[in-house]
Amino acid sequence: MGSISSAYRVIHLHTDGRTQKVVFSRFCSPCDIKELLCTAAGLSRNTTISLLDSSGAMVSIDPTMPNNSERCPYRVLPLPGGHLTDKEELFQNVLTQVAEQFSRAFKINELKMDVTNRLAMLEKRVELEGMKVVEIEKCRNDIKKLREEMASRNNSFLEENKKLVPRRDVPSYPKYHLSQETVEALRQPTFDVWQWEPNEMLTCLEHMYHDLGLIRDFNINPVTLKRWLLCIHDNYRNNPFHNFRHCFCVSQMMYSMVRLCSLQEKFTQIDILILMTAAVCHDLDHPGYNNMYQINARTELAVRYNDISPLENHHCAIAFHIFSQPHANMFAHFDPDTFKQIRQGTITLILATDMARHGEILDSFKQKVDIFDFSNEDHLTCLKMVLIKCCDISNEVRPMEVAEPWVDCLLEEYFMQSDREKAEGLPVAPFMDREKVTKPTAQIGFIKFVLIPMFETVMKLFPQMEEVMVQPLRESRDRYEELKQIDDAMNEVQKKKSENLTMGKKK
């Protein structure tokens, strides 16, 4: 459900001819962040400043400001007339000393459970005393130490160029021995993806490539495979939903569909390699905010890709940036024509995961399915696009205890986006608004009108899918409809109680 690092933001500043990294909590107030930037720039904390990006555009100083990289640092520009007078400075110092005395009296330094609680208590005490204390120096130092400790434990604070560099030695993640029971379970759509740590998931992915004969048939170096998988892991962010576990979930479902539908009898091994590799790479470096946000907020990705599937294009770019690293390129020995085929096939499948294209792709497949020809390249490409789409949104195929936590993760990510959209004055989709959506309402329409029609269409080619994939979807739909009926009944009871109370007060 997201790591500790999701509560912190990292930006880079250009100060005195060098680039400095600044870390702050997303719960900080804009005033707190402004003072932190002043300190980093060597200015008085009361200086009025503007923050400019590399193009000279002003950046809003608040907890939702975009991350940047060392290559594109922000600049702090002090504004004239922004300093306090001597009298105001003296008064501010007195208030700071008073605040320090209160901090000792109430032993704020003992309240080190987390940064959020610390800042919340300071703000509450400042409000009660009617003062405008920004931050106590001791508290600031403690927060800085805590952030540095978390940064050292979490690779999400690594610079982008470091994340893309593969390990040059033989990868050191433990080689887990998969039991026969695990090997068999891994081939089933019912596989419980929540039981495994990242290193174990890497071992499972490695096993899939070996088990499908891809390493043997294409003479891929097993050590290069390990390095590539480690690089893949490092380039998934710690989002609530679009994270490395989701990558593993989609890849495992693709692996199980290859086995269940005997796809190796229908496709070439190059097609199987493309299906698996696209599944592994399909959400690389996902920022946790969807295409609609990217376009409405006019982000760098939206501008770069002209509002056309900005995230999916970015996933493709990161995937082949990783392959450009010699020690992580398992296709290095392929001839140019074969590599071109794999590259084009992988890009086509990743771009197909943009849900804005769902209707277009499914309609095209429906026109072909009744006359499907496995010797027709266009038919095969369309089928591969539908297969990766099925795997990408297949959580409800799994048992309830495996599927339901994914709904919580997705809603958490949706709510983070809608909160940010509201703060930035951007349009908010109703299905992402925490004030309008519930679990049942979120799932019923999606299962009925997206999942079931798509899986039932694929089932026409592979009837064996009905029992293990389509029937669980129908059961999930029925369960959420029952939950909605219960919610509706409870809301009706609550509404009547409120009406009775209102009538009683009038009497």
Q: State the secondary-structure class.
A: mainly alpha
Instruction: Give the percentage of residues in beta strands.
Output: under 5%
- Give the strand tally: 4
Mean pLDDT value: 85
Report Rg: 27 Å
Main beta sheet strand tally, sense and closure = 4 strands, mixed
Tally of individual helices = 20
Low-confidence stretches: 130-136, 151-162, 165-170
Please tag this protein with its features.
single chain; 507 residues; mainly alpha; four-stranded mixed sheet; 4 strands
How would you briefly describe this protein structure?
The protein has 507 residues and is mostly helical. 58% of the residues lie in helices and 5% in strands.
Outline the secondary-structure elements:
Blueprint: E1 8-15, E2 18-25, H1 30-40, E3 49-52, E4 74-78, H2 86-105, H3 115-129, H4 137-153, H5 160-163, H6 180-186, H7 198-211, H8 214-217, H9 222-234, H10 244-260, H11 269-281, H12 291-296, H13 300-304, H14 310-323, H15 336-351, H16 358-369, H17 377-392, H18 400-424, H19 439-459, H20 465-506
Parallel strand pairs: 1-4
Antiparallel strand pairs: 1-2, 3-4
Helix pairs in contact: 7-9, 7-10, 10-11, 10-17, 11-15, 11-17, 14-15, 15-17, 16-17, 17-19, 19-20
Descriptive report:
The chain is mainly alpha-helical. It contains 20 helices and 4 strands. The chain has a 4-stranded mixed beta sheet, with helices on one face. A hairpin with a 2-residue loop joins strand 1 and strand 2. The chain is globular and about 80 Å long.
